[in-house]
Amino acid sequence: MNWMFVPFARYADFSGRSRRKEFWMFQLLNMLVICALAVILAGSAFSEGEWTSMQIVALGLLGLWMLGVLIPSLAVQVRRFHDQDKSGWFVLLGFIPYLGGLTLFVFMLFEGTRGPNRFGDDPKAAEIGG
């Protein structure tokens, strides 16, 4: 559970390395929050023609959440690329329509380089104690 909140602790830290676990647990937290707010938004969408106050609050919270996770999401992606000994500028691949998102997804699945690289020590080895 702690892994979900590590990117918030390293909010705008674009240096160093991050494990796959940190990235994917943060993505899981992001999806859970978005799905919960989407359920609230869609809850009474078909029963009434007007927006309910709960839907307006959920929409506002969704907007705040998306703004709040923008920088930590970019930072954790950059650190994942650093873990693979790649430049953080690879994040810009996400701006290519269609294939960019898929390419980022595939890169985020790759294991990081073992041992230290030019971006720092291996975070997995540091956790294991080796």
Give the count of structural domains: 1
Beta-strand percentage range? under 5%
- Helix amount, in percent? 55-70%
**Which structural class is indicated by helix and strand composition?**
mainly alpha
Cα Rg? 18 Å
Q: What's the pLDDT, averaged over the residues?
A: 89
List segments where confidence is low: pLDDT < 50 over at least 5 consecutive residues: none
Number of strands: 0
- How many helical elements? 5
The rounded distance between the terminal residues' Cα atoms is 23 Å
- What is the element string, with H for helices and E for strands? HHHHH
Described by the principal axes of the CA atoms, the overall outline is elongated
What profile does the largest beta sheet have?
none
What would you note in describing this structure?
With 130 residues, the chain is an all-alpha fold. The protein contains five helices and no strands. It has one domain (15-128). 58% of the residues lie in helices and 0% in strands. It is elongated.
What secondary-structure arrangement, pairings included, does this model have?
Blueprint: H1 6-9, H2 20-43, H3 53-83, H4 99-109, H5 123-128
Helix pairs in contact: 2-3
Write a compact overview of the structure shown.
With 130 residues, this protein is mostly helical. 58% of the residues lie in helices and 0% in strands.
Observed structural traits:
about 130 residues, mainly alpha, 5 helices
